């Protein structure tokens, strides 16, 4: 499979996808017909227009899947698919409702390049269990696309040592996940992404990623790190630690 999984689509002080545009335009070369999935936000037309504005200057033609009577049919004439960020629960519910969950999964496993950002990157994992989002709707299942066999936590945040907030940190929440599931979680900080191609996976971007595994301390993975071994893991869900 050919995957570009971005932690975020908007970086502070930059335009939409601007922080990763060189990587995105290499992944989506000029002439690409891109099927965009806008269901993570409520206003599909405005969201699609935003993606067009960012990508058409580099030669990418963008069509929202919602613009077709059959959203899944739009994949057949696309050269790549992009699932954008927003609320992951709303997005997954729409993927089930439209038949796109199976259609996208099968097309990408068959070779269609897949780009995700934020919620779209959550969709590439086996389940929704490590998302940061509020469940504003209830999808039929937490099962996502399963394009990679491990979990990803986009927008990973380090604890602020000066904060007086006493709620759980992101690290504590992911540790709780690992108490009930034996599945690696790759935390992608802002400005970072995961590139998967030809059976290899590499951390790229502006900051290190952070890898969480059961019964081990989190590991820092600098940009450029080869994490291909994660593609061979066998996830264990609902396997409480003893």
The helix-and-strand class reads alpha/beta
Mean pLDDT reading:
95
Q: CATH homologous superfamily, by name? A: Class I glutamine amidotransferase (GATase) domain
Work out the count of structural domains.
1
Helix content: 10-25%
- Which strand-content bin applies to the residues? 15-25%
Task: Report low-confidence residues grouped into runs of 5 or more.
Answer: none
- Can you identify the CATH class? Alpha Beta
Q: Largest beta sheet: what is the strand line-up?
A: 3-2-4-5-1-8-9
Number of helices: 6
The topology string of helices and strands comes to EHEHEEHHEHEHEEEEE
- Under CATH, the topology can be stated as Rossmann fold
Q: End-to-end distance, in Å?
A: 35 Å
Quick one: biggest sheet? Answer: 7 strands, mixed
Name the CATH architecture. Answer: 3-Layer(aba) Sandwich
Q: Tell me how many strands there are.
A: 11
Radius of gyration from the alpha-carbon trace, in angstroms: 17 Å
Bulk shape: globular
Architecture overview:
It is an enzyme of class 3 (hydrolase). Belongs to the peptidase S51 family. It is found in: Cytoplasm. Pfam families: Peptidase_S51. The protein has 242 residues and is α/β, with parallel strands linked by helices. Helices cover 23% and strands 20% of the residues. The protein contains six helices and eleven strands. It has helices at residues 21-27, 44-55, 88-98, 100-109, 119-122, 170-180; strands at 2-6, 33-37, 61-64, 80-83, 114-117, 151-154, 185-188, 192-197, 200-205, 209-212, 219-221. β6, α6 and β7 (185-188) form a beta-alpha-beta unit. It is globular. The mean pLDDT is 95.
